[in-house]
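pasting input
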Amino acid sequence: MNIVVLVKSAVDEAELKADPSGHPLLKGVSMKMSTFDMNGVEAAVKLKEQNGGTVIVLTLAGAEAKKAIKEAMAMGGTKAVHILAEAADAPDSLGTAYCLAQAVKRIGAVDLVVSSEGASDTYQGEVGAMVAEFLDLPFIAYAKKVETDGVKVKCEQGLMGTVRVLEANLPAVVSVVSEANVPRYPTLLQVMVAGKKAIEEIPLASLKGPDYPDTGTEVLDVSIQSASRKKVLFDGTPEEAARKLAGALKEEGVV
Amino acid sequence: MTGAVLSYSESPDLAGEVAAAGAEVAKLLGTEAVALELDEVSAGLRTVNKVVLVKGERPLETIADSAAAGILEFVKARGFGALLIAETRFGTMVAAKVAARLTVGSLGKGKRLRVDGGRLVLERDVYGGRFTATVASRMPCVAVVQAGAYKAADASLGPTETVGVTVGEPKVAITQTKQGQHGEAGIKSALKIVSAGRGFARKEDLALAQNLANALGASLGCSRPLSSDLGWMGEEAHIGLTGAYVHPQLYVAIGISGQLQHVAGIKDSKVIVAINKDAQAPIFQVADYGIVGDLYEVVPALTKALKQG
C-alpha cells in the first residue's frame, strides 16, 4: 500500500531565543523534524513493514527542511516530496492543507495519509483534518493504535479518557498521538542511505489552483511571554519547609 | 451587519464558557450571539445568548464528522460572523473540518479574542508556550477557545429555537466506545491541582499525592510519562502541551522536572508550587514557591501542615 506521511520541519522550541524587543530569533536556529511527526513516520513505516508498499514523506517548507526530510527518510521513508515554500510565502494552516492535499492527488494512488497530532512549534493540530476535507476522505484523529488490512483502517482513538474504536474505508487520513508508538532510532547506515534517496521538489505556486483558499489570516506579532514567578525556596527540615510553604499558601489565599 | 457569533462545545462544562466568549465578541461586533447545541440542550448550560438546538436525522455529537456536518448545514442556511469552539480534542477536529469545508480562516486555539478593524484577533501560544502569536482573520472565521479565559454567565436559559438538518452518513464508523471516568473537561476547570511526575518510584506511592490533594480539595493530575509510558493514570489526567491546559488557583508539581511541554500546560496557574529533589530542575524556574527535597518526606509533611491549619 502507498502511505503518505506528513512531516513538518520545526525549530527546536526549547533553544529558541528572543531578541531585545521580545521577538523570536529564528535566523540560524537549528531545525529538526517536529517531535510528534516522528510518531507519524514510525506509524507509517510500521504499516509499510506489515503490509508492504511505500512510505512517501511529504513536507511543505523552505530549503531548511532538508534535515527533517533526511531524518524521516532514515526512519524508513521510501521517497520524499518537498513542496518548496520559502518562509515569506508560507501559507496558513488552511493553505498548507490545500497544498498538501493537491500534492497527495499528484502523487496518486495513495491509500493512507498519516499525520501527527500537531506540530511541536505551533501545536494547532488542524492540518490533518483539513487535508482530509480537501481530499474528501475519512479522517480519524488522535489514533493510539492503527491497523489496516489494505481495505479498511481501524484505529483506537483517545479523546482524553474516552477510548473509541473507529473504522473507515481506505483511502483515509489518520493522525496519531505521541503515545501511539516509540519512534525508532535509525542506524548510521540508514542515515547514510537516506541521503541518497530521491527527493522530488514541487514549487508551491504550481499547486495553487483557482480554488486555493485565500482566507486572509495574518500573523500580526510573535512575542516572548514573560513569566514573573516569585521563585521562593523554603529550606530547613521537611517539616519546617512544609510549614513555611503552608503559611505562604495561606497568605496567597489559595488554601 | 456582521453575521451572528456562534459558540459550540460538545462538553457541557465548557459550553457556557465558550458562549461567554461568543457574547463578548458579539458585543464588540454589534451582532447577535448564538449558543449552538447539537442533539439536545446540555443540562446546566448557562448563557445569556440565544440558544439554537440543531437536530439531525441521526445523532450529531457522536462523531466529529457529524457534528461538523450539523454545524455546516446550519451556517449554510443562516450565515455567521465567527464560530467559536471550546478547546477539546473533539472541538479541535470540528473546528478544522468546518474551516476547511467553508474555506474560511482558522485562527487556531488560543485564549483571548478581540476585534480589530473588522477582523477577529486571537492570541495563541507558540513554541511550546514560550511565545505568544497574535493572529487575525477577516470574518467569517473559526477559532478554538481554551478553557479559563472566559467565565460562563450566571443566567438561566431563554427560549430555544430548534433547527432540523440533514447530514448524511459519516465516513467513519464507531465500532466500540470505552467511556472514561471523567469527561475531557475534567481537569481543565479544576481550581486546585496536585500533579505527580517521574519522581514517584511506584504507582502505589501516588497515594501520597492523593492524600495531599484530599487535604487541599484538589484534583489529581500528572505529567506525560505517568499517563503514557507508565500508564499509572488515565490520559485525561495528563497536563501539558499534548494533554490538558489548566489554569487553577493553585498548582502543586511533585516530582515533576518541568520540561517545556509540561510547563506549556500550567503557566496560566495563579500560584505554582514545586517539590523536587533536584535543585536544578527547570520546574523551580517557573514556580512561585518551592521545596528542594525528597517528596517522600516533604509531601506527607505538607499534608500534615495543611491539615493542622
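fyi DSSP finds six helices and 13 strands in chain A.
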